[in-house]
Design brief:
16 strands, Aminopeptidase, alpha/beta, eight-stranded mixed beta sheet, Alpha-Beta Plaits, six-stranded mixed beta sheet
């Protein structure tokens, strides 16, 4: 593995940054601690920056030793945490009860800050790098908010790159692919209004819970019976709310909350409309009504040819081609980096997180698990990736 000495020698210091960020997780559009921490470090490094994008978003700019190409590229990392009670058992566990960096965004910020310091001190590239610290990835709102606040008007990018830790890959590996890497996502909320009553005289009521159950099971036929099996898609409803705590009561209202995932934007639009029709028809058949709200949608993450080639070349220069998968199987997870990939040619890459010899270590648990923790051992690898990406995507002209 090829990690330059000055990055490797800063490993313990960067681990301390990561642990401090981990101890103070905040969820979407509440990332004040991370915002202030990043600004403090950027000031220490002498890196110029601007705030005000998506509330707590930050853009830091580093100019290369030369700028003959005039090229500008963006590196993006996320900042927000999750509503999870942490069970990792680490000494640096969350100090904010019920909040947790369960997706490794603390590590992503750390790696980006490490790259910021090195690139500021060693601007061995020809062009400009914009480091985009993005809030609210978990709710799929932050990228859109930053764009609406003028991100790319102020910082136009010729290419944009993103990276995420991936517990399904071993430490020392990378994976990406050309084309769609991650799913387009839509949140769906269905409110069913029936008729309240006594559960002992349920024939005089219209039970919205039974209707909700029928909707949940019938939604699966949209996938199995109404979708081309060669086009992956899922519909999942993990939440049913009625507000009733008494078994003697038939509630008037039930609310379902779920998520639609597809690798095809056109299919997503089709499923959204079919979901609306199905909910309305089932409710009407029971003498009830249903309203359907679809929100916080995110485009698929589509990787373009030239940036993907560049990401592959950079990754292989660090860990060798045998440890980089350029044809990784797309996954159904959502990522609002998809909004960035619609704005400029882009690549999103996974960096291996799992410790292959210790499957019970916290870094080997799934993202969003209460037992998860970011793997500190991959911090230098991630920093090296960002630094080399600047150097190789915008090579300094020979004297």
């Amino acid at each position: 593995m090829q990690i330059r000495d000055e990055i490797q020698n800063a490993h313990e210091e960067m681990m301390a940054w990561r642990h401090e960020l981990h101890e103070h997780p905040q969820t979407a559009f509440e990332e004040e601690f991370a915002h202030n921490f990043i600004i403090k470090k950027l000031k220490e490094f002498g890196v110029s920056y601007k705030t005000g994008y998506g509330k707590y978003g930050i853009v830091a700019t580093i100019k290369g030793a030369t700028n003959e190409s005039g090229k500008q590229i963006g590196f993006r990392c996320d900042m927000d945490a999750l509503d999870i009670h942490e069970e990792s058992g680490k000494t640096w566990r969350s100090q904010n009860e019920g909040k947790m960096h369960g997706c490794g965004h603390d590590g992503h910020m750390t790696m980006m800050l490490g790259a910021a310091r090195h690139l500021q001190q060693n601007p061995d590239f020809d062009g400009t790098v914009h480091l985009i610290f993005q809030p609210a990835e978990e709710t799929l709102e932050g990228a859109k908010a930053m764009i609406e606040d003028g991100l790319f008007d102020d910082y136009p990018c010729d290419e944009i790159y993103g990276m995420h830790n991936w517990p399904w890959l071993a430490r020392g590996k990378f994976a990406t692919c050309e084309g769609t890497l991650m799913a387009a996502v839509s949140n769906i909320e269905v409110t069913i209004i029936g008729k309240a009553g006594h559960s002992g005289m349920i024939d005089h009521a219209i039970d919205p819970v039974v209707i909700a159950a029928e909707i949940i099971t019938s939604m699966q036929t949209l996938i199995s019976q109404r979708t081309n099996p060669l086009h992956p898609a899922t519909i999942y409803f993990p939440i049913l709310e009625t507000g009733v705590l008494d078994t003697g009561i038939v509630p008037e209202t039930a609310v379902l909350k779920g998520i639609i995932r597809t690798l095809n934007i056109g299919l997503r639009s089709n499923l959204e409309q079919r979901a609306r029709d199905l909910c309305n028809n089932i409710a009407a058949g029971h003498g009830a009504t249903a309203s359907v709200k679809i929100y916080n949608d995110s485009d698929a993450v589509d990787n373009h040819h030239i940036p993907t080639d560049m990401a592959y070349q950079v990754a292989t220069s660090i860990v060798s081609e045998h440890h980089v998968d350029r044809n990784y199987t797309p996954c159904m997870s959502g990522e609002d980096f998809g909004f960035f990939s619609c704005k400029a040619p882009s690549n999103f890459i996974f960096i291996g997180q799992r410790e292959p010899d210790d499957p019970k270590e916290a870094c080997s648990y799934s993202l969003h698990s209460p037992y998860y923790d970011f793997n500190d051992n991959i911090i230098p690898i991630g920093v090296e990736y960002w630094v080399r990406l600047a150097e190789q995507a915008m090579p300094k002209k020979a004297a």
